[in-house]
Amino acid sequence: MNEVIKLLNHHRSLRKFTDEELSEETIRTLVGAAQSASTSSYVQAYSIMGVTDPGRKKH
Predict the structure, then answer these.
(1) What DSSP assignment string belongs to 7-47?
(2) DSSP state, 58?
(3) Which H helix or E strand runs over 52?
(4) 50 with 10: CB under 8 angstroms?
(5) In whole angstroms, what is the distance from residue 31 CA to residue 22 CA?
(6) Tell me: the pLDDT tens digits for 12-44?
(7) Which of 8, 40, 58, 59 has its CA at a distance of 20 to 30 angstroms from the CA of residue 14?
(8) CB–CB of 57/51 below 8 Å?
(9) pTM passes above 0.70
(10) Rounded distance between C-alpha atoms, residue 25 and residue 40, angstroms
(11) How far apart are the first and last CA of the chain?
């Protein structure tokens, strides 16, 4: 199998989150960057969900 295809088929993304809260300025900066990111078909569609309930964050 092609090495690039093998890499793509086996790629995983693991995330480890902290309890650190983001400032309003950081959130605005991140949202602005996400809105400016290139997308297919130039749609620029996005969804952002802010979760603050510790119980929901566990899932």
Answers:
(1) HHHH--------SPPPPHHHHHHHHHHHHHS--GGG-----
(2) T
(3) none
(4) no
(5) 12
(6) 877 777 878 889 999 999 989 888 877 777 776
(7) 40
(8) yes
(9) no
(10) 28
(11) 36
